[in-house]
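Quick one:
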Amino acid sequence: MEPHIEQVLSEAGADPTAAFPKPLTDEVVSGADIVITMGCGDACPIVPGRRYLDWPVPDPDGAPINVVREIRDVINARITELLASLPST
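Output:
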């Protein structure tokens, strides 16, 4: 893993060793209620009945640490907003 990515994940309290891109196979998408992509566009599998959100973000690989932090913060804000929009259980 790129050192800046590992560092900003650690700063946020995430375990960087557990972080890896999840493949968007038909099986994975079929098991999801919401599919979030980050710039995938038409290349991702589409399963009817799923909610799709595309959050295009810059690629953090090789970016300066301040840019990687900004990317992390944008993703965090979008997750927080999504969670707040979901119905309570």
